Write a sequence for this structure.
């Protein structure tokens, strides 16, 4: 399994932006499909976005489409989540996750992922 360290969370006003980062421990980072999930207080962890191994394909939950952008730099073993036009309902702990096998779809559930970061808290004030 790959070890993941996510960071970049913080407190931001509605309409603001944040960029989350997730650094992976393995030099085989490019062989992993990477994703971001989030978990709001009292709610289940939910899918946010996925990026393919090469970075050429990206996928988003409807709730963040058009506002969030996922990207990766395989030379730096890092995946990013650029979050713009943030809303109070985006408040959550954000987790990066890795999956080794494709599985037929890029829309994953938490149980589909192989490795997880510890999470970084994003708080959006109104």
């Amino acid at each position: 399994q790959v070890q993941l360290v996510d960071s970049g969370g913080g407190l931001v006003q509605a309409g603001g932006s944040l960029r989350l980062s997730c650094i992976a421990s393995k030099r085989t980072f490019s062989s992993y499909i990477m994703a971001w999930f989030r978990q709001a207080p009292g709610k289940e962890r939910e899918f946010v976005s996925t990026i393919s191994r090469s970075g050429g394909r990206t996928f988003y939950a409807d709730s963040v489409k058009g506002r969030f952008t996922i990207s990766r730099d395989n030379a730096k073993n890092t995946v990013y989540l650029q979050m713009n036009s943030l809303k109070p309902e985006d408040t959550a702990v954000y987790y990066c996750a890795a999956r080794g096998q494709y599985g037929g779809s890029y829309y994953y559930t938490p149980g589909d992922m192989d490795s997880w970061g510890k999470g970084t808290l994003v708080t959006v004030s109104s």
Summary: The mean pLDDT is 96.
